[in-house]
Amino acid sequence: MTRIYFNDVVMRDGFQIEANFVPTDNKVRLVDELSECGFAKIEVTSFTSPKAIPMLWVMGRIKRVPGVEYNVLVPNLRGDERAFESRADEFNLVMSTSETHNLANLRMGREKSFSGLVEVIEYVDVRTPINVSLSTCFDCLMEGEVPQTVVEEFAQRFADLGVRGLTICDTTGTANPDQVKRMSEALQKRFPNLQLTMHFHNTRGMGLANVLAAVQSGIVRFDGSLGGLGGCPYAPGASGNISSEDAIHMLDAMGYDSDMNILRLLQLAIELPKIVGHEVPRQVAKAGSTYTLHPEPSYVDKLRRAQ
User: Fold this and answer.
1) Quick one: which of 31, 165, 223, 246 is 20 to 30 A from 198 by CA?
2) Residue 36 contacts residue 29 (beta carbons within 8 Å)
């Protein structure tokens, strides 16, 4: 039975586009609840300048569960210095493989972004494991399809710098299972020693199909967001991430081992709309698990006995 590892990103990626402020107490409680569900990783926050102090408060108050890695997004060297104070288990760096998206999102070209991340990696000097998230690895809604060779080139440059892992992001939610299969097989063959994580959006309804294509190609690590929250503000029309609980429920039903407490996770997903103040794009939490049986109508037993 294949073991699958999930990283939940609702705290950072999910909340980044929420209009309503989520109080710190609620954030701390949510991380603690996610920790008890069995996630391999939880992306707790980002260390961008205006939010550094409140985010240190969150990292300082959470209950760290053995076996769970708590990672943070580090945008630059200044954020890196603050991130060390948080005692994060992993630093996540990010840039786009699309020049236009990188300019729109990070206000700089790819090469400048790469140089800045090299500074971060050199400053960390293997004191904390580093993962690099590469955005728009399949398509850019401003440029069009991103060649796989471009993705592999940036992946190689970061691998040469000694990062522990790479996250391949379908930021625009346009990837299809055939693309995912080709990308997954190529990257695993080229980088057998890297932690490879896939990050999908469900913008066009292909999120779970892409998860399945990746799993069947040998990928065992995925990002997901509780309730399907999130989305990139600089990817026009891109809605939320795949729902963690929907993807985990699907893979569990197929016999994969996620080591997750799916019922506890579904209950947490049910509570999420109260935290953010609106409905969220979840499915299984609304419909119920396939393992949940319902009472039969009273007349069924009479019909059964009359046969």
Assistant:
1) 31
2) no
Catalytic-residue membership of 37: no
Residue length of the chain: 307
Q: What is the mean pLDDT of residues 55-77?
A: 89
Q: Tell me the helices (H) and strands (E) count for the chain, helix number first.
A: 12, 10
Query: Is 103 a residue whose pLDDT tops 50?
Result: yes
Q: Is the backbone of residue 231 left (phi > 0), alpha (psi -120 to 50) or beta?
A: left
Give me the mean pLDDT over the 103-126 stretch.
94
Domain carrying residue 13: 5-306
C-alpha span between 216 and 200 (Å, rounded): 15
Catalytic residue among 37, 140, 169, 232: 232
Beta strand extents in 117-272 (DSSP E only): 130-135, 139-140, 144-145, 165-169, 195-199, 221-224
Total domains in the chain come to 1
Q: What is the pLDDT of residue 57?
A: 76
Residue 224: closest CA among 37, 7, 5: 7
The residues with which 93 forms a beta bridge, in sequence order, are 132
Specify the residue for token string 């600089």.
234
pLDDT value at 53 more than 60: no
Please report, for the domain that includes residue 257, its CATH number.
3.20.20.70
pLDDT above 80 (res 96): yes
Helices (H), 125-232: 148-160, 177-190, 207-216
pLDDT of residue 81: 77
Secondary structure class of 145 (helix, strand, coil): strand
